[in-house]
Write a structure and sequence with these properties.
By secondary structure, the chain is mainly α. It has helices at 2-31, 61-65, 91-101, 103-113, 133-152, 156-174, 179-202, 207-222, 227-247, 249-252, 258-262, 266-269, 272-277, 282-300, 322-330, 333-376, 436-442, 454-467; strands at 407-411, 414-419, 448-451. The longest helix is centred in the last third of the chain and has 44 residues, at 333-376.
Length: 479
């Protein structure tokens, strides 16, 4: 009888614990932000056909780009020494040696730039990303350095070709790819545009060079996929990766030692009962990711920078208190963790995407202004003077709240072309969002400024970063 009574007491205690846990979970789920609904009518499939490994031919850009993973072109030179705008002794020699060391990778870039089919096949999952990013960036930067060297030597055809190779290959690399591919494109495009403006402002380029480069930038701007397409590829990657992720994430992300991964990885970290308590399964997480992606596509599919942040899809990603934490971890906890990692990165990438679109358009304006100045001996008082001889139409500012052209000011012997920046407010180019130090200090109050004194300002930023290493700036080398 005593044993039976003890069993009853234990069962009652377990029942109370179960009821309390259920109440805790239900209360927590009520307090957290619910998963978004799938947006009706939003297409999650990418517009471009999905190329697989079997579809790769010598005429696909990816065929050439992936070869960068195997090329022995990685430089061991200390590039930080000659990044200081050519002020160090022996810099030219170092630059030439570095550019020469990039020859195999630069040959791959030139092949890719001339591809008839400029689409990069989508990766089948996150586990199959090709490790070409670092060599690709180095080779593209070497191409831009070679372009500046050719410009200084007056070999404008060679300079034009090198800039074309870097810009077109980067543009191809972003088509049919996830946010990682887009960020690589933006990085190379930024390097090339910075070099183009510097060459135009410091040298005396011929009219043909300015016209050809302006036309190329306009073509790349017009042909750029929307950021919504990038989100579609990101979702495609998750779709192909989630079963893999649930089965063996340690192996997928190369975490743990070989024996741990061989023993089953994920099952040793989160067994099925814990996944059940977290309310997670590959099917449920994918359903939630599809809904979140559809809502992000609605925001990102815009010609101008959206005022609504992607984080608004799931604003409560950081639980406050024990109840919200319980709700966060039991309402598809795996999915919520993944989304909490994804959304901030996507917001940052969206801002960079539109920032680079502003840089493309601002660079076109700078090239046109410089051509006007070389032809007429003065800069225009208004951008409208550039139309139609130098610009077919004034480029729109992608950060303007309503459609408006890029801004332009002439004062005290200096001229500036600028975009409003993230906040959509005209700060009259007082602070420069392209300067990392000014952006760090003034945040969204910065405009994106390009113009007459830009090279000297960039070098001043770099020299300041040497005294304040935490700023982490860099300055492209020039002779």
């Amino acid at each position: 009888m005593k044993r039976r009574g003890a069993v009853v007491v234990v069962l009652k205690a377990l029942g109370v614990v179960v009821l309390l846990a259920a109440a805790l979970i239900l209360t927590g789920r009520f307090l957290v932000q619910p998963w978004p609904e799938r947006a009706p009518g939003v297409v999650l499939e990418p517009a471009r056909p999905i190329l697989r490994e079997a579809d790769v031919t010598p005429d696909n850009a990816y065929y050439y780009l992936r070869q960068l993973a195997q090329t022995p072109a990685t430089s061991r030179l200390d590039t930080t020494r000659f990044a200081a705008c050519g002020v160090e002794a022996g810099t030219v020699t170092q630059l030439e040696a570095w550019v020469q060391s990039m020859k195999p990778a630069r040959a791959v870039l030139r092949s890719a730039a001339n591809c008839a089919n400029g689409q990069v096949p989508s990766v089948e999952s996150f586990a199959t990303q090709m490790p070409y990013i670092s060599p690709f960036l180095m080779a593209a930067r070497a191409e831009c350095v070679a372009a500046e060297q050719a410009a200084v030597a007056g070999r404008w055809d060679a300079a034009e070709e090198s800039y074309r190779v870097a810009l077109r290959t980067a543009d191809q690399e972003s088509h049919g790819g996830t946010v990682l591919n887009v960020l690589v494109n933006l990085a190379v495009s930024r390097i090339a545009c910075d070099g183009l403006r510097r060459v135009a402002l410091e040298q005396q380029p011929p009219r043909e060079f300015l016209d050809h480069m302006g036309a190329l930038l306009a073509e790349l701007d017009a042909g750029q996929d929307s950021f919504a397409e990038c989100i579609r590829y990101e979702y495609l990657c998750w779709q192909n990766s989630l079963p893999e992720f649930y089965n063996a994430p340690l192996e997928m992300f190369s975490l743990g030692d070989g024996q741990t991964r061989a023993d089953g990885g994920w099952k040793r970290v989160l067994a099925k009962p814990l996944l059940w308590l977290a309310g997670s399964s590959p099917e449920r997480t994918l359903e939630h990711m599809a809904a979140a992606s559809s809502q992000m596509i609605l925001i990102a599919d815009a010609e101008r920078f959206p005022r609504q942040r992607l984080m608004s899809v799931m604003p409560m990603l950081r639980p406050d208190g024990i109840l919200q934490t319980v709700g966060y971890l039991t309402d598809d906890g795996v999915g919520r963790i993944l989304v909490s990692l994804l959304l901030p990165a996507m917001d940052n990438s969206l801002e960079r995407f539109f920032g680079q679109r502003a840089v493309l358009r601002g660079t076109r304006c700078v090239l046109a202004i410089r051509g006007y100045e070389l032809a007429r001996g003065r800069v225009p008082e208004r951008l409208e003077e550039l139309v139609p001889e130098w610009l077919a139409a004034l480029p729109e500012d992608p950060f303007a709240v309503v459609p408006a052209p890029m801004r332009y000011v002439v004062a005290d012997g200096e001229w500036k072309v600028y975009s409003l920046g993230v906040d959509g407010v005209d700060h009259r180019a007082r602070y420069d969002g392209l300067s990392q130090s000014e952006r760090a200090h003034h945040g969204d109050a910065c405009d994106l400024v390009m113009g007459l004194n830009e090279p000297s300002r960039r070098c001043a930023d770099y020299e300041k970063s040497l005294r304040q290493p935490a700023v982490g700036l860099s300055c492209p080398a020039r002779n």
